[in-house]
Sequence to fold (639 residues):
Amino acid sequence: MRKRQPKTYTRLTRPLVRDSRDEPLREASWEEALDRAARGLARHRDAFGMFSCARATNETNYVAQKFARVVMGTNNVDSCNRTCHAPSVAGLSAVFGSGGGTSSYEEIEHTDVIVMWGSNARFAHPIFFQHVLKGIRGGARMYAVDPRRTSTAQWAESWLGLNVGTDIPMAHAIGREIIRAGLADEAFVERATTGFEEYRELVEPWTLSLAEKVTGVPARAIQELAHAYARAERAQLSWTLGITEHHNGTDNVRALINLALLTGHIGRYGSGLQPLRGQNNVQGGGDMGAIPNRLPGFQDLLDADVRLKFESAWDTVIRPHYGLNLTEMFEAMEDGGLRAVYCIGENPAQSEADSEQAVRRLRALDFLVVQDIFLTRTAELAHVVLPATAGWAETEGTTTNSERRVQRVRRALTPPGEAREDIDIICELAARLGHDWKYADAEAVWNELRSVSPDHYGMTYARLEEHQGIQWPCPGKDRLEPAYLHGRLWEPDPQRRGMPAPFGLVRHDPPVDLTDEEYPIRLTTGRRLDSYNTGVQSGGFASPLRRGEYVELCPEDAERYGVVVGEEVRVSSRRGSVVAPVWIDTALRPGLAFMTMHFPDEVDTNQLTIEANCPIAGTAEFKASAIRIEKLPAVTYVR
Fold:
């Protein structure tokens, strides 16, 4: 087996520019780089897109989306939220009018039943999982719904190992069983929801026996989970990318929300819905308006009164229509509708599904500006590269985690070389394009955000420090709101209760990339504890847990293909092929393989994944590709 060494990325310390398409990047002064970036962007105001950053501060995301809307006159702004949790935001906001998780982390320590659905939180969200363990030690029963018997599932009372892409049949069977057994919270359903009768009719065909045939999970296990969840006084339902990264990810989310509505496990302490975000500020990026359909504070861009407020604050006119999301922007690159991109802290060349296609589209841009801390694969394609500070250690500001908690970030290190603050760079470009923004510091940006976002108004820097973080909504400076959302649904007064929560009438839709004789194995993807996303930040640091990228197979499949641990094989999908060593994992079942995206420079897993996108949220089906495994010919060495 060849020894694979993760690529180490060198920190960017000076700006880089490219003199022509065929010439390499070279070092330049800040003046030259900023002038070039401004000229290039100015040429494409009518065909521009902004990629903001889920690892940057709230303040950076706020200024980035303001740059797109005010300076460039477009709502084409998005971030990696589209790659992971856009279906969670879409599903939650469709039901409750708000796209945030409904509970605090602390509540899972004091609940009775925990359902971890499509989430290996022990590896992907280890801080949150510490709260889960406290809940388990306090008596909570945990159920894990996941195709793999993950490290998280090993702590569960029951593991429901469903077939990839059968989450809706599973959820519908649970819902039907709850109704059939008389365990639905009828008073809550009648008072606080709509569409129940249609939902009852929708799930009626999904008997336990049919669900067993489709999902592969024994009927008795499905029944046990249904009864445990419905009978619990308090229950938490958490999910991650195993639910969202599907071509019908939003429908998956709606199917899970239905279970909370059916049982009243929403709007109360200890009962709620918790999508777990993988990066430090995925939640905050959306909250700050770095998405194409919402202004800061998650305010609907189509609301004329909301637009007027921002237009008055920013002295501009905001286009009254949604912009393109990340997926749509990549599609627009194909037909020439999008010709320039300003990319802050994202690496879509390696994080997008069908990565070869993504790189081809990025190469076709007339102008690409990348602002980052490393020369990523995306930055290597840029016309101008701007060295920025690390948002988690070299910058002042705030971030927002999965429980909606806004927390202060403080500068602990001096940035290297000529690296500059993200906000300063954006403002320098804005000035060159006719908008002279003056912010004394990150707190000044935050205060501007507070002035236009009611949910954040009460969060001064002083209060954030005093309380060591505050969850939104926080509309007042003299009080804190409950840790959970949507308590209004329990109000007896209809006026105070507000809009009811609708059941989602969603139907089973199998994975797009079907397995067959040519591609008989289902590949699903995920994360490992030792590495982070595309490995740009974590690959240069040693870890005793890290073994590089493998294609993981169950013992039965390894025996069937005649392969052993460490042996390199060719892994092929309908889009591309990679060579990867084999690892054998007893947590997998026959016909299921597992890989990550952590080492794309050695094994580019995203050459295999499919760009089959959720029509509502635009998230690709990273979790369900069809592949085949081929032994490589033996190598003969001649002495």
Notes: The radius of gyration is 24 Å.
